[in-house]
Amino acid sequence: MTSMLLNSMWSCSVRPSWGLWCVARSLSTTAQIQAQVQTKSKKTLARPGLKNIVLVEGVRTPFLVSGTLFADLMPHDLARESLLGLLQRTGISNDAVDYIIYGTVIQEVKTNNVAREAALGAGFSDKIPAHTVTMACISSNQAITSAIGLIASGQCDGVVAGGVELLSDVPIRHSRRMRKTMLALNKAKTLGQRLSLIGSIRPVHLMPELPSVVEFSTNETMGHSGDRLAAAFGVSRAEQDEYALRSHTLAKKAQDDGLLEDVVSFKVPGRDIVSKDNGVRPSSLEQMAKLKPAFVKPHGTVTAANSSFMTDGASAVLVMSEEKALAMGFKPKAYLRDFVYVSQDPKDQLLLGPTYATPKVLERAGLSLNDIDVFEFHEAFAGQIVANLKAMDSDWFAQTYMGRKSKVGVPPMEKFNLWGGSLSLGHPFGATGCRLVTTVANRLRKDGGQYGLVAACAAGGQGHAMVIEAYPQ
């Protein structure tokens, strides 16, 4: 497939220096876009006989570069802080929800059900069940949609969904041979058996198995896949750097303007109070151009500057039936409407989840791309985002790979990730989905729009998209 894409997609290039154009447009036309969306009047997506399910509130810890202020914590510490932030923000009692679900990717073996440990640590009633899910970078998306399913089926009225990742401290295993020896030692009954097993240990057995963000089915890192995808769609290094600069520039503006209201301050034990993301670092194209390729060397185009960075953080949202939320005195932020999950070839289409999921979720909701006022796409790599935009704008790709008659089209950049994204805010694998959904709800409230769309890719060639509708103000 890659060779076909290389030969066929060069004609789909976005205009030169489009990233810088997007920055200027995004920063200069916000008021104009707000005025436009506030005048729109669209139908609601409520359906007879189906419960309205709402997002009451969403919060997150600051997202910090791994190895910084969260480095000495454990994942359940971060998850607990997001739960405490949600309790404080909403004022809900610790026994007023029916279930708690958290997403995570790299699990801490001491707290393999991090949702339960975090809930107990945050003071939630021990009568509230909790479980943990994993679906790579869309783990907290899965937590949210699992919550929707529990409420829609009548099992629950209120569910807390969230996600957490602490990449500062990930499990490092002994070699398989060493693990076998250690397990056998634990079962040995005599001194002779123990000495024999100890004597069988060789220096090579002591080499640890380090974790790596590698696709099990392809043995290829996501960075390599991102580099190949960018090459297949003719995404230049300059385009990637320009998009990454856009993300950091918009994130810095959102920080300075106080728009990232989902962030809750956190007093790190023995350290400072942390109140904002620390990976937002607008640079210059000249500085970014000096960096060497990070994965495909020496000719790759994916670098540290145009990739999301290793991040620690947690997020949480309160999801309820509309009836229950109103009965408890809440004013919801948004309706959670249609969603889809998709899956593609994990080798050549690993990061194309948004391209496949977006048209499907729009069709389920009976909407078109033009109906969407707010877009929030997960930014794994700048090249991944630009490649998805080119794929979405290609009739050839739609017809050849998606079985569609025509392309879905490109989201207007004036509506796209206007408060930054994973490239700048950070990407704690298990926690990003909740950030995306909460950001859509907050942007809709601020700008007066009605519909928002979340989309994300994930390891394994999977993806997710959801339509969110603003709650009437």
UniProtKB/TrEMBL annotation:
It catalyses: tetradecanoyl-CoA + acetyl-CoA = 3-oxohexadecanoyl-CoA + CoA; hexanoyl-CoA + acetyl-CoA = 3-oxooctanoyl-CoA + CoA; decanoyl-CoA + acetyl-CoA = 3-oxododecanoyl-CoA + CoA; an acyl-CoA + acetyl-CoA = a 3-oxoacyl-CoA + CoA. It is an enzyme of class 2 (transferase). One of its GO terms (cellular component) is endoplasmic reticulum. One of its GO terms (molecular function) is acetyl-CoA C-acyltransferase activity. Its EC number is 2.3.1.155, 2.3.1.16. It is found in: Endoplasmic reticulum; Mitochondrion inner membrane; Mitochondrion outer membrane. One of its GO terms (biological process) is fatty acid beta-oxidation. Keywords: Acetylation, Acyltransferase, Endoplasmic reticulum, Fatty acid metabolism, Lipid metabolism, Membrane, Mitochondrion, Mitochondrion inner membrane, Mitochondrion outer membrane, Signal, Transferase, Transit peptide. CDD domains: thiolase. Residues 53-323 form the Thiolase N-terminal domain. Pfam families: Thiolase_C (PF02803), Thiolase_N (PF00108). It comes from the Eukaryota. Residues 1-19 form the signal peptide. Pathway: Lipid metabolism; fatty acid beta-oxidation. Heterotetramer of 2 alpha/HADHA and 2 beta/HADHB subunits; forms the mitochondrial trifunctional enzyme. Also purified as higher order heterooligomers including a 4 alpha/HADHA and 4 beta/HADHB heterooligomer which physiological significance remains unclear. The mitochondrial trifunctional enzyme interacts with MTLN. Interacts with RSAD2/viperin. Mitochondrial trifunctional enzyme catalyzes the last three of the four reactions of the mitochondrial beta-oxidation pathway. The mitochondrial beta-oxidation pathway is the major energy-producing process in tissues and is performed through four consecutive reactions breaking down fatty acids into acetyl-CoA. Among the enzymes involved in this pathway, the trifunctional enzyme exhibits specificity for long-chain fatty acids. PANTHER family: ACETYL-COA C-ACYLTRANSFERASE, TRIFUNCTIONAL ENZYME SUBUNIT BETA, MITOCHONDRIAL. Belongs to the thiolase-like superfamily. Thiolase family. This is Trifunctional enzyme subunit beta, mitochondrial. It comes from Channa argus.
